[in-house]
Amino acid sequence: MSPTRLYRLVARAEAVTWALLLTGMFLKYVTETTELGVQVFGMVHGVVFIAYCLVTVLLFVDQKWSVSRLALGLGAAVPPFATVPFERYAERAGLLADAWRLRSDAPHGLLEKLTAWLVRRPAQGALVGLVAVAGLTGVALVVGPPA
């Protein structure tokens, strides 16, 4: 999967889960009918939020984004639906290539070496990504919900 396609997928999934969570919050706080939407969609949104952030960091390293663009990308996950306009901006600005740079370029430094390993072995990279999302989700559950 290309960097462009992967980022588009996670950015849109993050926006959809925001919509689901906001729907759950409407049912809980406005109609006062059920908390189930917040419980279910809150967890789903949290998992996708973590995945979006990890993919953003992966692209930061592979596509050589500036730290300010990384901060914008990560910050876009906070307000509802902002990941989609940021993904469109990133594509228009040439921040998303059709291929992974580190599949062919020699990596320099620890972060690039780790990223190169992930993108050169897509199946193992996807598995590592799933384990990372699950692990960070577990940490978030232990820490507790935001106050």
The residue ranges in which pLDDT falls below 50 over 5 or more consecutive positions are: none
Report the principal-axis shape.
globular
The separation of the N and C termini measures: 37 Å
Major sheet size, sense and barrel closure = none
Index terms:
147 residues, mainly alpha
Give a verbal description of the structure.
The protein is mainly alpha-helical. It is 73% helix and 0% strand. The chain is built from 6 helices and no strands. Helix 2 runs antiparallel to helix 3 (67-75). 29% of the residues are buried.
Structure summarized in a few sentences:
With 147 residues, this protein is mainly alpha-helical. The protein has helices at residues 3-30, 36-62, 67-75, 83-92, 109-120, 122-143.
